[in-house]
Amino acid sequence: MIRYALAAVSDICGMIARMLNVNELDSQLLAHIDHRWRKVHFVVGAAMIAWSRASGTPDDRQLIDRIIELVGIGALESRGDLESPEYCEVRLVNSTDSEA
After folding, report:
1. pTM of the predicted model, to two decimals?
2. Would 97 be classed as within a structural domain?
3. Domain-located, residue 50
4. Which residue among 3, 8, 21, 79 is buried most deeply as judged by most CB within 10 Å?
5. CA-CA distances (angstroms) from residue 76 to 10, 22, 34, 35, 60?
């Protein structure tokens, strides 16, 4: 019984840690996004490489999900299917780039 309770507490602590790292995830992702269209696949890969130099690398799915959330709240715009990072592109909202 205690083992299950400890596992549940560990799961909850992990969820809280992931929630607290959202700003860190955003910072790392946004460091690789500007006014030009970038493949989500490229952004995630670049963030994972940069992250691995500093500390543990987050899961690629976690980064893709965060990009989807950033698009959802209007921080980024996308074109293509966000669930296919090798084909979808993102950029900052209100980009002055003439490429549409």
Report:
1. 0.72
2. no
3. yes
4. 21
5. 33, 15, 10, 10, 18
Q: pLDDT per residue over 22-42, tens digit each? A: 888 898 899 999 999 999 999
Range of the domain at 69: 22-92
* Residue 98 lies inside a defined structural domain of this protein: no
| Residue 54 counted as domain residue | yes
CA angle 70, 71, 75 (to 5 degrees): 60
Q: In this structure, is the dihedral angle defined by the CA atoms of residues 32, 44, 95 and 72, taken in order, positive or negative? A: negative
Structural domain count, the chain: 1
- Residue partners of 28: CB distance under 8 A and separation at least 6: 47, 50, 51
Residue 46 vs residues 32, 53, 60, 70, 78: alpha-carbon distances, Å: 7, 11, 11, 17, 18
Sign for the pseudo-dihedral over CA of 83, 64, 99, 94: positive
